[in-house]
Amino acid sequence: MTKPVAQPSTITLKALEGATPLADERVRSTVIATANAIAERSGVDLIELSATDDAITVTLDAPRLAAIGFAAELRRITTRWHSAKFNEGPLWGERPAIDDEDDFTYDIFVDLDDDEDDDEDYDDEPDDFDDDEFDDFEDGEGDPQW
Q1: Given 45, 74, 100, 136, which is the most exposed site by the fewest CB atoms within 10 A?
Q2: Of residues 84, 88, 94, 81, the one with CA closest to residue 32
């Protein structure tokens, strides 16, 4: 048994809108068994588990990052199983097709400060970068001091 964390983490794996992957009792019991198996295999204490027709919620005695990884692993394994067993699409639903690509993309190169000095030449190296010191390190001489 692992040492208890300060605060358990609860995470919900929810199907996309309209999908009810756990409405079938056989599928639900397989997903629940898989969640228990992942917890046992990874050495994480599963404190609580509940399932509805469209989601499974688990509380783990683990940090939040571990809970996110747990949910990702549960989704991956159960989707693979469901696709192979029933020859259907993803267990947790399919994302809608994108009609207009502009609706779902973001321009990450937007200039937020509206300065007029956008043509300023930027130096790729920090001011205190010593080319000679780097060359010595590449040749196996010296120890870089960056």
Answers
A1: 100
A2: 81
